[in-house]
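Write out the 3D structure for:
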Amino acid sequence: MDKVVFLDRDGVINVEKNYLYKIEDFEFIKGVFESLQYLQNLGYKLVIITNQSGIGRGYYTKEQYDKLTLWIKKEFTRNNINITEIFCCPHGPEEGCDCRKPKIGMIQQASAILDIDYENSWIVGDKSSDIQTGINANICNTIQVKTGHSFDEKSSKALYIINSIEQIPTIIKS
């Protein structure tokens, strides 16, 4: 079975910027490459799951999103990181799709290509909806990072709260 770390994109992988779709505006969060290499060395598959309602709202196109995503994948490859897949929900919150977090559609899509070991997998996000996605998919290992949207730590349902993805090695040990 595959141990997987599901990662939100904005606020976890990169600096949170509203409706980010331009390469020139994209900034990786400090320590992301080292942390993902660490997880990869522990045998985890890395999957990014991201709500991108800017597509559904007409702020940018699917083609613009795809161009940025291709660039992101190339940057990870240049840093010896294999991202198994990047899943995107392009819908707005009012569309009622099955893929928008906290629904589990993107995790179900991942389960079509991976034999996921849910008990030993993790989800890392900056929003309560990311954490709730993990809970809804029976992924009990949840980490909420403070590098994205602000949140009330006392009301967080995350198993762990860390300052940034840079601290992943202090939490995930095997």
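The chain has six helices and six strands.
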